[in-house]
Structure formats: structure tokens, C-alpha cells
Design goal:
alpha+beta; Glutaredoxin; 4-stranded mixed beta sheet; 27 helices; 48% helix
């Protein structure tokens, strides 16, 4: 957008004279009621869109902002967040909507807003800087940069007045502006120095004579078990994040070695999370994390990536425990996703906000008085006891100057119910759900990311087989069709990252390729459709071409080298696993299905590159540990002949998915599969060969026999 939207001094002017030709007519009509409209009105990101009426002269990340900073010799204020971030909303309300604060920002800095979900590559660089210089991180992330994009100061949330032991945002702004004018050389020298040190600290070189060691798995499991909270479940202290890759890894290792204590840790964690307020007891799905150790009070935003990974966890819990309550949670997650998080053409939206009508949790919480009015006396009595409803509630938003009172976050306090009381509870929950649908819903972040969609694609594909639910497979197929139509260029094997309102971006990220590869492989293993396997190969080719480091191993996070001061190989498996970890496991699975040694070698070289973390800091790489486990323990291959759509093949596919055996692949005999599978006759009655390495057992047509074979700890 041109500078015509602002006065010469780059200060926003009243809306009456702030008419921008680049805004489409619908946006122009909507902006007439607002005093300010800035460049972000034309940006597709829901997060940036939220800030389009701030008095701050915001720019999106890009050349226009960078040029302005250099031309005017101004530092950059880069503010990073995401649309469902509660504290991002708080800081916007307190500071970015304040005209006096905006005036200081506009006069002294070029202000850039960035959506971390669209650009995790940019976020990673500046989060690394803030963590290195302050010892912590989070969002909103506010970082001050030189015009050549090197950071010199940063932090997270800044209050409007000094509190919480933090300087006020205005004080920080004025002091940094003064320092830029009077201590310019010191700032630039410091920025150059720390940028160099960060580059050195994150650079990794190929390691020679490193052997992947099974002991690393044992060490990691001991570490995970030591962090277990025996009282409330989960790993570590408050705030508690589900971080599914950690219990997923613990479960697969514990199951192999018959460590019942560790298995119980995972199952109890699943039970405690599902009983807590972090789980939506009325509508299904999980919030991002719990602020306390009990899983009681969440920040209420719901993220697609959390629910995708948790779906895998509850499917695994169900297969290990045989307890239908774990299957019920899996069903409820999918019910939520298909009801509230799905585009009509099959794509999955990114997130839902914590806030509704400016109040955190308002959509989800209940007062005792409200439930007394809504429910019959008998329903209320059961509901009050089951969910622990009290007059004064259990939640108050202390970040809100005028918080709602007497709010109850629903959690299961007394689960013991007679059959008659269970009927009353279910009736009450139906009434509560219906009542809740009439409330103002939280903001929906309706951008569709190929990365996070890949995670959910895999989870729902797998759920369709484990839970024997054909409509889940239909949803998975529709999702992949959407992604291929809107975000995939088959000619150049290019996968774009974000789609919204008919438009896609031009960003190339490792996460997109790796996560979608994971999802497509799960879909292939449910359908045995060769076109899905070929697409997985095409994705891998595109990923290798763009991101793989042939010299040292591992994958670069992004291809946007002109706008990034560092090239990064992400290796941290946090709330979202790293692209390198997901790529490594995906390559190993694809390598076993196709018998392509190149894929195995790329994965092994990636694991070797990150061997220090696997050995010395396993808590940072629980997903990568799954890849290590996979390469050390030879996976089983269930090769199913015949028409995959035939009833015989369908029974065998379902049987293969019904046994907890993480290190396995399921493949058909058509398409680019391994040589042994290709040589099997495709047209005869469906049967299955269970193979490990170069040895295969006698084939069987019996699904019960296949389950027995897969469940065996060791093959004959």
C-alpha cells in the first residue's frame, strides 16, 4: 500500500480524510465507522486484520517497511503474535489502541505486525534472540531491530504502566528512541555482535563417526518419567501444556518393554486432561494449555495443531487400554473439528479465540444462577455435583480491569453416576450446548495452513480406521483435495502455506511439506490408494529440493533468505513438533513403504545432526525420539494384496490399525511400493504378509490372525 494513507509525518489521520484507493469497496464501507485505518486492512492474516483500526502506523513484514526504515534511518519495532492470543489482545487494548502510545511508536519507529502462525521462520529468529537475552519468551513478542533487521532489544508483554516488575511500554519506547539517537554506534555494534553469536550458537555441522544409540531412548524415558506429576498427571509444573509428542514417545517405549508404570503415567495424564477444564466438557476439543497444575483453568483458545496431536494420543491410549472412554474423547475431538473448524470445501481452520465479547472464557463458563434457570431441579443437582459448580465459581480473569464474576469452568469433580443420573446429566449437557450456541462465539481464525492441516489430516485418517468411522475418511479425503486444489502446484511440486478467502500466500516452509507428508502417509495407510503414495513422494521431492542440506544433513526452515538474517534448522519439539522431526519420521516411513534408501539416509543424517539433543537434552526433541525409535527398532510391514476397496482388504486394513504397534507401515501392491509388494499378484483374494527386514511370515486372510501377529512382542 502507498504512503497516501498517512500524512507526511507518517501519523494516521482521521478516517474522514483517510481514504485509501487500494482498499476494496467492502473494506472502505466498513472502515467509515472507524477513526483510523492502516495498511493491515489489506492483509489476509486474521491477526493483522485485528489491528487494522489501530492508530499505529502498522506495516506488514516486507520490503515496503524495510525500505522505509532504511530511508528514514529508523529502528523497527516488530510485534509478533497470533489472532487467538489472549495477552496479545490485552496489549492491543492497553497500548496499540491508545493514541498517545501510538504517537510515540509512529514518530520513532517503523512498526511491523507479524502473524507467527503464518511465518514461524521469522518468529523463530527473534524468539531465539529474546530467549537468549531475557531468559524467557512468549507472545506477544516485541523486538526492536536495526534497519538491516538485526535485533537489539526485545521482550514479551509490556504493561501500559509499570507493574508486574516490568517497565511500562511507553517508557521502553522513549528510552529506546533516545538510545537510537544518542547511542547509535553502541546499539549497532551490540546488534551485530549478538546476531553473530546467535548464528554461531544455532549452526550445526555434519558429525562424523556418530552412531545412533539405543541408550538415548532409555535416557530420555527416564527423564520424562522423572518429570511426571503423580497427583494431577502431566509432565512438569504449571502452566501445563499437553505437548502430546512427549507422552506419545513415552507410551511407545513403555509398551515395548512392558513398563506398566510408564504406561499408567500416560493413561492417567489422558484421563486427567479429559476431566479438566482444559477440555471442553460441552462441545469437545481441547484448549491450548492450563494455567494451573490441575488442568482446571485454561487459556481458552483452541488450536488445530493441539487437537490433531491429542487425537493421535487418545487413539493410542484407546488401543493400549481398550477403554472406550479414550475412544469417546477421540470422537468428540473430531466432532468439534468437523462442526466448528471446517471450511465447507474441506479445509480446516486454524484456531478459536479465548475471548468472546472482549471477555476471556465468557463463551465457555457458567454461573450457578444461570444453570439453575436453564435446568430442571433434578438436572441441576446432578450437574452441580458432577462439575463442581459453586456460587462464587472457580475462574476470574485477573488481566481484565472489569472481570466477569462467579464464573465456573466445567471440570469433572465427581464422576460417579448412576444410570438414572447419567441420563439427567446428558439431558443437562444437551440443554447447555443448545444454550451456548446462542452466545456470541469466540473469534475464529479462519486461515487454512497446509502445515497444521497436514497434522489433522493424518489424525482423522487414522481415526477413521481405528474407530471404524467412514465419515472421518470422507473428511480426510475432502481435506486433501482442498489442499491440493488451493495450495499445491503439481508442475513445480510447490506447496504454499496459507489460504484464506480464496487467496494463497507465496511462503515456502519446511513445516508445510513435512506435516502434510505425515498426513498423506496416514491417509495412504488407510486407503492403500497409490495416488496418495505418489503425492507423498512428490511432496518429499519438493521438500528435498527446497530445504535439505546435503552437506550437513537436516532441513532449513524456510526459503525466504533475502528477508532473514539467519538460516535456521528448527529442532525444538514444543507445542508443535519441529519440521525436522516430522520430516525425519515421515522419511523413514516412506522409505520403508517404497524401499527407497535415499529417504532412509536423509532421515538418518538428520538424526545424526541433532544427536547432541537426542543424547543430552531429550526433553527438547520428544518427536525426534520417535524417529530414533523407528530407525533403531525395525518396523513391521503389513503388505495387503488384492483390491484395497474389497471387503477382504478393508477387514485387513482395519485389523492392522486396531493393534497398538507404532513402528509399522501398511502398504498395498499397486503404485511405487517396495519390490516384494510389487511382485505379489494384485488381483487375487486379499491377504496380508507381515514382514520385518527381508523376512515375511506366511500370508493370512484372517484379520484376527493379523491382529495376533502384530500384537506379538517378537516375530518368529
Amino acid at each position: 500500500m502507498e504512503n497516501s494513507s498517512y500524512s507526511i509525518e507518517s501519523k494516521p489521520v482521521p478516517q474522514e480524510t483517510n481514504v485509501v484507493n487500494e482498499l476494496d469497496p467492502q473494506i472502505q464501507a466498513k472502515t467509515q465507522e472507524h477513526k483510523y485505518t492502516n495498511r493491515l486492512a489489506n492483509e489476509p492474516s486474521p491477526y493483522l486484520e485485528q489491528h487494522k483500526h489501530n492508530p499505529v502506523d502498522w506495516y506488514p513484514w516486507g520490503d515496503e517497511a524495510f525500505k522505509k526504515a532504511k530511508d528514514e534511518d529508523k529502528p523497527i519495532l516488530l510485534s509478533i503474535g497470533y489472532s487467538t492470543c489472549h495477552w496479545c489482545h490485552v496489549m492491543e487494548r492497553e497500548s496499540f489502541e491508545d493514541e498517545a502510545t501510538a504517537k510515540v511508536m509512529n514518530e520513532n519507529f517503523v512498526c511491523i505486525k507479524l502473524d507467527r502462525e503464518e511465518r514461524p521462520d521469522v518468529d523463530k529468529i527473534y524468539m531465539t534472540f529474546v530467549q537468549a537475552t531475557t531468559g524467557g519468551g512468549g507472545w506477544p513478542l516485541n523486538v526492536w531491530l536495526t534497519p538491516d533487521l538485526k535485533p537489539f532489544y526485545g521482550g514479551t508483554y509490556y504493561p501500559p504502566v509499570a507493574k508486574f516488575g516490568r517497565a511500562s511500554f511507553t517508557d521502553v519506547l522513549t528510552q529506546l528512541a533516545d538510545a537510537w539517537k544518542n547511542q547509535r554506534k553502541d546499539i549497532i555494534d551490540s546488534a551485530n555482535d549478538i546476531s553473530q553469536k546467535i548464528a554461531e550458537s544455532i549452526s550445526l555441522k555434519a558429525k562424523e563417526n556418530i552412531k545412533l544409540n539405543p541408550i538415548w531412548l532409555d535416557q530420555a524415558i527416564d527423564k520424562f518419567k522423572s518429570e511426571y506429576d503423580p497427583r494431577y498427571g502431566g509432565f512438569g509444573a504449571a502452566p501445563k501444556f499437553p505437548r502430546p509428542s512427549q507422552p506419545l514417545m513415552l507410551l511407545r517405549h513403555a509398551y515395548r518393554i512392558d513398563d506398566q508404570d510408564a504406561i499408567n503415567m500416560v493413561l492417567n495424564t489422558c484421563d486427567r486432561m479429559a476431566a479438566g477444564g482444559m477440555y471442553d466438557q460441552i462441545g469437545g476439543g481441547f484448549a491450548r494449555y492450563s494455567v494451573d497444575e490441575k488442568w482446571l483453568v485454561p487459556h481458552f483458545e483452541k488450536m488445530l495443531y493441539d487437537n490433531a496431536q491429542l487425537l493421535h494420543l487418545y487413539l493410542d491410549a484407546y488401543l493400549v487400554s481398550g477403554d472406550k472412554k479414550h475412544a469417546t474423547i477421540a470422537h468428540d475431538i473430531i466432532r468439534y473439528i468437523l462442526r466448528d473448524m471446517r471450511h465447507k470445501d474441506g479445509g480446516f481452520y486454524s484456531a478459536e479465540d479465548a475471548d468472546s465479547e472482549g471477555k476471556e472464557g465468557k463463551f465457555y463458563c457458567w454461573t450457578e444462577a444461570e444453570l439453575k434457570t436453564l435446568l430442571t431441579e433434578a438436572e441441576f443437582t446432578v450437574t452441580k455435583r458432577y462439575f463442581g459448580i459453586t456460587e462464587h465459581g472457580n475462574f476470574e480473569d485477573h488481566s481484565d480491569p472489569d472481570p466477569l464474576k462467579n464464573q465456573n469452568v466445567l471440570s469433572i469433580v465427581d464422576p460417579k453416576l448412576t444410570e438414572e443420573n447419567l441420563k439427567k446429566l446428558n439431558s443437562a449437557k444437551q440443554k447447555m450446548f443448545k444454550k451456548r450456541t446462542k452466545r456470541v462465539r469466540p473469534h475464529l481464525d479462519d486461515k487454512i495452513l497446509s502445515s497444521w492441516n497436514g497434522l489433522m489430516l493424518g489424525a482423522i485418517s487414522r481415526a477413521s480406521a481405528v474407530l471404524s468411522e467412514p465419515k472421518y475418511l470422507e473428511a480426510a479425503e475432502a481435506n486433501l483435495t482442498f489442499l491440493q486444489m488451493e495450495l499445491w502446484d503439481s508442475k513445480s511440486k510447490t506447496l504454499y502455506h496459507r489460504w484464506r478467502s480464496g487467496k494463497r500466500d507465496n511462503v515456502q516452509l519446511l513445516d508445510a511439506y513435512a506435516f502434510l507428508l505425515d498426513g498423506v502417509l496416514h491417509l495412504y495407510e488407510v486407503t492403500l490408494d497409490p495416488k496418495h503414495l505418489q503425492f507423498a513422494i512428490d511432496l518429499t521431492d519438493g521438500m528435498e529440493t527446497r530445504f535439505y542440506d546435503e552437506s550437513n544433513g537436516g532441513f532449513w526452515q524456510s526459503t525466504d533468505t533475502p528477508h532473514l538474517i539467519l538460516q535456521v534448522k528448527e529442532d525444538y519439539d514444543g507445542a508443535v513438533p519441529s519440521g525436522n522431526s516430522v520430516a525425519a519420521l515421515g522419511l523413514l516411513r516412506l522409505g520403508k513403504i517404497t524401499d527407497n534408501k535415499k529417504y532412509i539416509d536423509m532421515a538418518e543424517k538428520t538424526l545424526t545432526l541433532f544427536s547432541d539433543n537426542l543424547d543430552n537434552n531429550p526433553r527438547t526433541v520428544p518427536y525426534l525420539l520417535q524417529a530414533l525409535d523407528y530407525i533403531i527398532h525395525e518396523p513391521r510391514r503389513a503388505v495387503i494384496t488384492g483390491d484395497p476397496k474389497s471387503s477382504g482388504a478393508q477387514d485387513l486394513i482395519a485389523a492392522a490399525h486396531s493393534v497398538y504397534q507404532p513402528n509399522k507401515v501398511i502398504l498395498g501392491v499397486a503404485g511405487p511400493v517396495e519390490d516384494f509388494a510389487k511382485k505379489l499378484p494384485p488381483g487375487k483374494q486379499s491377504e496380508v504378509y507381515l514382514c520385518t527386514g527381508s523376512a515375511c511370515q506366511e500370508p493370512t486372510v484372517n484379520s484376527s490372525k493379523l491382529r495376533e501377529m502384530l500384537a506379538a512382542k517378537k516375530l518368529p
